[in-house]
Amino acid sequence: MERPDAIIMENIGTRFGDYWIHRNLDLKVHCGEILAIVGGSGTGKTTLLRAMMGLVPIADGKLTILGKNPQTLTLREQIALRQRWGVLFQQGALFSALTVFENIAFPLREWGHLTRSEINDLVALKLQMVGLQPKDAWKLPAELSGGMIKRVALARALAMEAEILFLDEPTSGLDPIAASDFDALLRQVHADIGFTVVMVSHDLDSLAATASRVAVLADHKVLTVGPLNAVQAVDHPYIQAFFHGERGERLLNSLRATGKLPTLPSDDQSGWARQSDPAPARP
């Protein structure tokens, strides 16, 4: 039996005051996939991510996440729903006065009904899962490298056995080697556990290394969504600039040379353009 979509956004609208960030936006996130969201500055990528999490109010449309509509839930039910996902913020957002152990243990102590021994075991397991050593548990965030901060943040986001993981620019601020290591870690943990990932990213290398599908935001909505090779073929100014600039072409040519990005026939390009046509606006 086919699993339901993890997230369904139907005719979503978000706004700040009179300014609409999104209008008539439709998007489905499949269970178990890694969906990357890209778009130009001001297109509302992080706002869309926060709307999924309930941190930004939805002005129009319907959101269904893990089979539930948050707008119809009681406060207690909303809290229970939010415990089913984890978040990795752009800079890690670790508590600076807490050790690595205490940062990872924080959600377990806040939301769980666990003994001290159970928390210790779970933190040790999460440290191992993200490739950190036991000795790292007693370090403060100020003593960690950028890559280690992202690993600790990932361990904390997954502490409650998250079904959905939200990532906001996870490789931002990392050097190319650390970013590649994080991509490999995300792929491995995702393969081991099978949770759903929604991430905002501008990193072309990360998109190619991790994303099952890519959704492109433009003109207040999702312009197109699909595998990387299909999305990069869509004839739209932003897509052409993003994927076919000097760096984008270099990456795409490298992927083609290794067989990781098959060339689409011309019919597929027009087909994807048709699939990206927006739904008619509601009266």
Automatic annotation (TrEMBL):
* Stored SUPFAM superfamilies: P-loop containing nucleoside triphosphate hydrolases
Q: Name one GO molecular function term.
A: ATP hydrolysis activity
Q: Which UniProt keywords apply?
A: ATP-binding, Nucleotide-binding, Transport
Q: Where is this region: Disordered?
A: 260-283
Q: Which PROSITE patterns match?
A: ABC_TRANSPORTER_1, ABC_TRANSPORTER_2
Looking at the record, the residues that make up the ABC transporter domain are 7-244
Q: Which domain of life is it from?
A: Bacteria
Under the heading InterPro entries, the entry gives:
AAA+_ATPase, ABC_transporter-like_ATP-bd, ABC_transporter-like_CS, P-loop_NTPase
Protein name per the record: Iron ABC transporter ATP-binding protein
Species this chain originates from: Acidithiobacillus thiooxidans ATCC 19377
The lineage, from the top, is: Bacteria, Pseudomonadati, Pseudomonadota, Acidithiobacillia, Acidithiobacillales
